[in-house]
Amino acid sequence: MSGSCMRLHFLSLILLCCVSHSTSFFTFKVDSSSYVACGPHQTQALTEFMNEFDSSHCNLSDPLNGVWCDNSTGAVTKLRLSNCLSGTLKPNSSLFRLHHLRYLFLSGNNFTSSTLPFEFGNLNRLEILNLCYNGFVGQVPSSFNNLSLLSYLELSQNELTGSFPLIRNLTKLSVLSLLNNHFSGTLDPNSCSLFELHHLRYLDLGSNNFSSSLPSEFGNLSRLEVLSLSANDFFGKVPPTISNLTSLSELYLQNNQLTGSFPLVQNLTMLVVLNLGGNHFSGTIPSSLTTMPFLSYLDLRVNDFTGSIEFPNSSTPSRLEYLYLGNNHFEGKIIEPISKLINLTHLDLSFLNTSYPVDFRLFSSLKSLMHLDLSGNSISPASLGSTSDIPTDLEILLLRGCGIKEFPNILKNLEKLENIDISGNIIKGKVPEWLWKLPRLNTVFLSNNSFNGFEGPVDVLVNSSVKTLFLEQNYFEGAIPLLPLFITDFSALDNRFTGSIPLSVCNYRSLMLLRLPYNKLTGPIPQCLSNLTFVNLRKNNLEGSIPDTFYKSSSLRSLDVGYNRLTGKLPRSLQNCSSLEFLVVDHNRIKDKFPFSGSSLYQI
Fold it and tell me: What positions belong to coiled-coil segments (predicted)?
């Protein structure tokens, strides 16, 4: 599920509900004269409420934040203050004097360590309540059961605990999100009020600690369009009553402990998204999946599915765009039927445990493919040499641990390639010069091979668009190469690089991660460590002292220079590094104590 407070297609529901011809809008100002249409008592309550918090980050020009008052009564009917307030929401807050509120949006504020006041139950005219991303702790008070007019309740992304909230009286509820909290316990239909909310269209209980089998009563929530139970501890089989949810368009059950055969979803003809990844489902995949009229996203990763994959012939091509089958136990030549899914843009076939090598030529029909993961499979060597059969729209290609012996020439014509991972193979020799000329290349993983250098001139990497480059555990030797101008992350752990660390690393303004441990580097440490965030120079032959050039507000969080030949004392400017969490200087010739007297770096 997305980390956002609510999926975008439900925002239209909010906007439609919030339109009223009998209200006026006024942006917040502490000056009470701005509440022209609000009654005097309401104006006073609003002003006092604002003064309860640090509101210095409020953007008064933001049209989404503000107060709406009824033109005839002067009562506040809608209040929206998002990403704005900092402080504690107290039970005696003036907010709870606004008894005519119908719509209340307080998302993205810093109410950290505040509990949800019982007094929310006094706002019994509320129809929409959004409290996501606020840092609320504790349990949902039983007074929420008084909010019988609520159609929308958003409590996601907090630190709330306890069992499923007591909201039995919220029979008009259409949208309920408890995503990413710490709710726990079972969903016992005899005690849980969830299954009495028959008007629910959107239900998200993802990323909590619920632990039980899935009650068959889920099938009674027949109006559901989106159901997410992901990342909990649900176990057992998916009840067959799930097939009653014929309005369902999105079903998220990933990352639980669910077992049994493939759930009965064939009747869910409106289904667009189905995510069953990270469970213990077994058996075969029904061939009818690809004929479901709207299904475009199917994630079955990390399960125990077996058998072959067969798709029925159909005059209408499948709508599948996202297909994730990695980490299962399929048998047979599964690529051939997949090659018929011509609308695919994302395909994960990693670690399939099949004995048949993957032939790239079978992907030639997938003209729209942008993301392909074949990691952990055997690749047909002949198919790696041709540049004519691979989809040219590929942006991400992952070939980790495929037993590849030669650099794959299929990459040469991939003008849109952004991310390539060929780590964990057995490729020898030099990295070809043409790789760095791919115009959109951003991320390159070459680790765990037998590379020993780069084709081309010494500055072959400089004009590349690459920002992340990992060369770990190879046989690269000689001087560290001149890096791409906009590099952010460079790791060359466990190679045979020699010479000093080039001073040019100080010129890469975007560089944050520099990892060069287990090489044969000599000379001094560059003066610019303060510009970096993560630095590891362990197990080299570096000499001199650690530069005393750490400035205030340095972003340095981790520094490891252990097992070198460094001397002198620790630089006193280290105490300027308020973000420093990890410091290792063992097995050098440094004679000093740490933390320094008066230093604030006791968190290390």
Answer: none
